[in-house]
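User: Fold this; tokens only.

Assistant: Input:
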Amino acid sequence: MKTPDLTDPRSRHRLIAVLAALVAVLVLAGIGVYGLITGPPTSNGSTGSGPVATRPSHPAPTTTRLPVVAASDDPETFARNVATALFAWDTASGFMPLDFTSVILTVGDPSGVEQAGLASDIATYLPNRDAWIELRQYATAQHLTIDDAYVPDAWDTAVTQAQPGQLAEGTVAYTVEGTRHREGLWNDETVTSEHPVAFTVFIVCAPTYDTCHLLRLSQLDNPLR
């Protein structure tokens, strides 16, 4: 095969065009894998410690329909139910981020005072619409395993310092610690990632309401301790 004459401007231009096309393909492939494994950045702009893709021996169950936050009058049980539903989503389910947001808003404070703030909180836990569409190409799904849920010391301090009537009776905070599991397909191979997470849910229960309701969420990975 004849070696191209790189002193010829036309040959150099063709070579540059070919190299540029190869680089573009490699960059797009890298973005696909990185997005699948790390997902959207956390609230402080960091994607965490870069988990490694692995082949799962037992693929985790994925969401085939919208999750439900089970009602409870027990604060810790309700906090765990909220946390589980908050992280349970599947881009291949046919639903969009707003559908999963509505699931959490359903158990919000009936007074509506915190609904706008809660909606904003939830949005930081979910991929935005563009990221969701990108992740859908890889059938990306997510779920949470909870390691611990507890009333943080900082909440006891906040209650002590609150002015009379500032907090509704039965208002409490629970910090949840666990592991976010994410799975998807890459070149017909199942890949997974795991990332530790921590956050605080603020809820109100009896005697204000017969069953617990969600008030707000802390920033992801910036919980009360």
